[in-house]
Amino acid sequence: MIATVTMNPSLDQHVVVVNLVLDESNRWISYRREPGGKGINVSRVVCELGGDTTAYGFVGGFHGDLLKTILKQKNVPCDFTSIKGETRSNFIITDLKSHRQTRISAPGPEIADGELKKLTVKINSIKPKPKYMVFAGSVPPGVPVDIYKKIIEKTKSLGIMAVLDSADQWLKEGVAANPDIIKPNVREAQALLGVELKTEEDIIYAVKTIVSSGIKVAAISRGRDGMIIADKTMVLKVVPPDVQVMSTVGAGDSSVAGLVLKLSQGGSLEEASRLAVAAGTAATLTSGTELCHKADVEWLLPQVMVEKLLF
Ligand SMILES: Nc1ncnc2c1ncn2[C@@H]1O[C@H](COP(=O)(O)OP(=O)(O)OP(=O)(O)O)[C@@H](O)[C@H]1O
Ligand SMILES: [Mg+2]
Asked: Does 255 sit in the ligand 1 pocket, CB within 6 Å?
């Protein structure tokens, strides 16, 4: 089973307008509410691809109830920890005329010490023990910045493979616990390593650096160029075919889902990175906050190029 932990989920509200005019009253032509949050996205994609997963994390208030209801409708198993605060709601506006997508994100509710304790006790006692636990996304106010480090140390001590997909200070602090897998994008990897990653050689050097620091698998995703991924034995360059992109929202989360799902099934790094890139690219074929469809992943899979680079 792949457990995912989303500390700061959201109820994403997505509107599409024909031509957004600032300072005017605009009308939407479509409105969708989707469960948001990186770990939840990973669980949704694992489900879509036929894997076994449960989403953990904090939810509260009216938005939290709605989020659980929508996940239930989508048959995504979840076992959240209730909080007193209200789960945040993020807004996404797609403007058809300019092809621009504007995102307005909320910081999230304050988490009390007791609530954090409840979540950690819960995820440390999941039965049967999950094979992988994915920690993804930002951390809400009130939660210590080194939370991922602490939880990942515990996860690893329980014999569960820990995956971290976060950014900024949460990624920086979290890598100190040597998670088994990290998947930053180029921007996040630059911030983590404190260097510019301009060329392919720079990225190859970066994944090798991360692996030699003690992390088993380092994948740096690079949008339309796919990803560069390494473990102790190899570096792979994984490139998707050209596609007509609708929206890149959730592409990275979809690639984490593909990667972890295949590895949890005993697949090789090559097979896992192929599924990762196929799932990420499949997510770009759907509009707004919608994630990948299994049928798209299946036709993309044989078209993903995997090249083994000299180590
Ligand atoms: N423009 C694109 N064309 C084709 N595939 C894409 C494109 N953008 C993203 N992808 C696919 O999605 C994967 C992850 O993309 P990206 O590097 O943008 O992740 P991310 O920045 O972590 O995304 P997220 O915002 O979901 O966290 C890529 O490896 C690739 O497979
Ligand atoms: Mg990402």
From this structure: yes
Look at residues 268, 271, 298 and name the one whose alpha carbon lies nearest to residue 285. Answer: 298
The whole-number pLDDT of residue 290 equals 83
**Residue 263 in contact with residue 255, Cβ under 8 Å?**
no
- Is 247's C-beta closer than 6 angstroms to any atom of ligand 1? no
| The pLDDT of residue 53 | 98
Average pLDDT, the chain: 96
Structure tokens at 23: 């300072």
With H, G, I as helix, E, B as strand and everything else as coil, classify residue 12.
strand
What pLDDT does 158 receive?
98
Tokens of 16: 């599409």
pLDDT above 90: residue 217? yes
- Residue ranges near ligand 2 (ion) with Cβ within 5 Å: 252
Atom of ligand 1 nearest to the CA of 277: 31
Per DSSP, what are the bridge partners of residue 16? 30, 94
Q: What's the pLDDT at 311? A: 62
Give pTM, 2 decimals. Answer: 0.96
Tens-place pLDDT, residues 6-34: 999 999 999 999 999 999 999 999 999 99
CATH for 1-10+34-89+112-179, options being 3.40.630.30, 3.30.70.1150, 3.40.1190.20, 3.40.50.1820: 3.40.1190.20
CA of residue 167 to ligand 2 center, whole Å: 8
* Beta-strand relationship, 235-239 and 132-136: unpaired
Taken in order 73, 79, 84, 86, is the CA torsion positive or negative? negative
Pocket test for ligand 1, best of 281, 285, 297, 306 (most atoms within 8 A of CB): 281
Ligand 1 in reach of 258 Cβ (< 6 A): no
